[in-house]
Amino acid sequence: MTKREPIFNVPGGVLATLAVLIAVHVALSLLSPLQYEWWVLALAFIPARYAGFASQLPGGDTASITSLITHMTVHADIMHLGFNAAWLLAFGSVLCARLGSLRFLAFSIMGGLAGALLFLVFNPGLAAPVIGASGAISAMMGGVMRFLFNAIDRREGYLLREQPRSIPRMSLVQSLKDRRVVLASLVFVGVNLLAIVGFGKFGESGAIAWEAHIGGYVFGLFAFGAFDAATQNTAPPASEFD
After folding, report:
1. Confidence grade of residue 198 (pLDDT, cut at 50, 70, 90)
2. Cβ atoms of residues 66 and 116 within 8 Å
3. b/e map 122-161, b = 16+ CB within 10 Å
4. Domain holding 114: CATH number?
5. Are the beta carbons of 43 and 74 closer than 8 angstroms?
6. C-alpha dihedral over 165, 167, 168, 174, to 10 degrees?
7. Dihedral sign for Cα atoms in the order 134, 136, 139, 143
8. Total number of domains in the chain
9. Residue 162 lies in domain
10. What is the model's pLDDT at position 154?
11. How many CB atoms lie under 10 A from the CB of residue 80?
12. Are 109 and 71 in contact (CB under 8 A)?
């Protein structure tokens, strides 16, 4: 009997993450306008909390800690949620299958936190809220860069879906020397920096928090090795394009 591969091969950790994002969005949509505004601000990451205004903002001092994580669960509208969900399924599925659910969750949260902190560095005292899982998802993109091109070099791209743990990981030094990783990273940064010159309006309202995206991506690229427990097999053959 022929074994049939599933059309969608989504790990439980990714499905659980997606379920949380959807549940939060639905719960917020059922609130009154005043309740919705209070809860969004209480869950959002707001730099002004760390400039002495925490007690004046929804959530108070407690939100100065909790919002570092809760801001990742809130999305401005269905388009914002749908966009992040698509990237979560694309990159998160590969990463979760390689890391396992617990390491994947820790990696994602740390990536989102890194993105929020870089946003704080560039915007100290800003009262505008930052919401969305984009920082965490950017970290997933950065992490995948550490083994994506090895799979391509070995002509084993199918392993990204079937067995990502078997793909050897580039060391950080190798990644920073690989022209494809560097080019992909520069494109990612460049696209996000377009927000500075006017691009970045997304969905119904709000601009792209490019700082959070870049912070998450850099964390993912640099810190992936600390979370990756996959057994490293033989290195890929040298690329004919090197």
Report:
1. low
2. no
3. ebeeeeebbbbbbbbbbbbbbbbbbbbbbbebbeeeebbe
4. 1.20.1540.10
5. yes
6. -120
7. negative
8. 1
9. 12-227
10. 87
11. 21
12. no
Report the distance separating Cα 112 and Cα 217, nearest Å: 9
Return the amino acid letter for 237: P
DSSP per-residue string spanning 127-178: -S-B-SSHHHHHHHHHHHHHHHHHHHHTT-TTHHHH-GGGSPPPPHHHHHH-
Phi, psi of 164 (to 5 degrees): -65, -20
Of all residues in the chain, the percent with pLDDT exceeding 70 is 88
Q: Residue 179, exposed/middle/buried by CB under 10 A (0-12, 13-18, 19+)?
A: exposed
Task: Name the residue type at position 205.
Answer: S
List the one residue out of 96, 71, 222 whose CA is nearest residue 164.
Answer: 96
